[in-house]
Amino acid sequence: MYREVDIYAKVRRAVMVEGLSERGAARQFGLSRKTVSKMIRHMLPPGYQRKGPPVSPKLGPFVGIIEQILLTDHDVLKKQRHTARRIYERLRDEHGFSGGYTIVREYVAQERVRQKEVFIPLFHMAGRAQVDFGEADIYLGGVKTRIHYFCLDLPHSDAIFVKAYPAETTDAFLDGHVSAFKWIGGVPLSVLYDNTKIAVAQILGDGTRKRTKAFSELQSHYLFEDRFGRPAKGNDKGKVEGLVGFARRNFMVPLPRVHSIDEFNERLLDACERRKVAVLRGQTESIHVRMERDRKAFLPLPGAEFDPCEKVSTRVSSLSLVRYRCNDYSVPTAYGHHEVFVRGYPDRVVISSGSEVIAQHLRSYSKEEFIYDPLHYLALLERKPGALDQAAPLRNWELPDDFDALRRLLEARLGKHGRREYIQVLRLMENFGQEEVAVAVEEALRLSAVSYDAVKHLVLAKIERQMPRLDLTHYPYLPQATVGITDVRAYLALLQMHANQADRAVSP
Question: Which of 226, 269, 311, 367 has the fewest CB atoms inside 10 Å of its own CB, making it the most exposed?
């Protein structure tokens, strides 16, 4: 390149300064007259500009195939896209290409550069938002766990909100909006999304979206406008796409160590809050100052808060179980075969019959698990006490050792009826706390008042702050004390004996 510029300068100087003719310069420098004329017209060498990547004669017939492969790769996971080596192998094995790997590799590299999209810098109006989900690993209770995190970005102010969830589910999506809107202090005029299935049930032929029921309810409650990016075009919401990466790099490196999701979310919220004081590159105002313009443009928060849950109607099985998200949750046996309504929240599952909540469980994110509440099955077990030892809902029920002792005594003294009474004792926990019943069982064993009635009386006495008044005649197994009856004549004789002893003591 240097040599080319050097000759160019010498030719121009010879002609334009020293007065040499173009013909003479052509002879002197071994150039054509046409080339010398071009040098005189341009102060700097224009250079050679190739209009497209070089294509060898062997590769030419296969260029269309390569371009189609690269185009198809745009809709494929990055890790599953074609390498130049794989494209070469397919050309060779499927299309009869006889050229070398090098020319394929060079053409693929140049074509990928050519296909890269170029963007226009955008101005972001106040009051708009973008939403997306990301995923990362953290140590949760000492165990490496994959979490998903909801991201809301306000492009005008660059304010961000991040909240973590065990999974990217409908309830997490809804709860993320409720939490974010509360934190930013209003409702954005519009929110931009990708085409997540949580919000978009179907993309119609004309490009319009059919919304899901859950998303429509959210939008109807908060009244924001929705916007959607082009399919497979993450750059349409580039701000929040950048936030997903920013949050992962700045809030989750190194891998956080927390005891619970709630603890981790407290950290994330604190990080979002502290970031407000930052003045970003290209700005003269802090995020906090610019966020005030966002707030002025927001819609007000509704008077009532949206219930961020997934809603499902279903039927209880013959085993008093309700299927939700690949897991089974118990309800009281009285509701077997009934229609029920399930509300799934990020942390719990609530099951209702009509307006009555009949069961509530911690949410499980595993698959094919059975989540039991032992109390749900006790009424049925009272009618079928023979199933007590094989009842799966009671298998992992951790109760104090005193309960086992009570059962052994009841069954030893009362047989089958003793087992039924033991179940009745367990049923006390339907109305009273486990700790209260456990204290009463302990006291009943101490008193040897081994019966359901005695335990119930002791529970009520404790709650009502009264002294227990057990009728001991109802408990034949209590140890009996024998009290003799003394005749009054024996008592008089005893007095006379003491008097005689006193007289002898004072006589000379």
Answer: 367
DSSP for residue 187: B
Q: 3-class DSSP state for residue 226?
A: strand
Rg (CA), the chain: 42
Task: Decide if 222 contacts 177 (C-beta within 8 A).
Answer: yes
Any idea where the domains of the chain sit in the sequence?
Answer: 2-41, 60-115, 128-297, 310-371, 378-474
Distance, in Å, from the CA atom of 118 to the CA atom of 57, rounded to the nearest integer, reads 31
CA gap 457, 479 in Å, rounded = 20
Question: What CATH class does 128-297 carry?
Answer: alpha beta
pLDDT tens for 383-429 read 999 999 999 999 999 999 999 999 999 999 998 899 999 999 999 99
The rounded distance, in Å, linking the Cα atoms of 130 and 241 is 9
Q: Please, is 504 exposed, middle or buried when counting C-beta atoms within 10 Å of its C-beta (0-12, 13-18, 19+)?
A: exposed
How far, rounded to the nearest angstrom, does the alpha carbon of residue 30 sit from its chain's CA centroid? 74
Q: In angstroms, rounded to a whole number, what is the distance separating the alpha carbons of residues 411 and 419?
A: 6
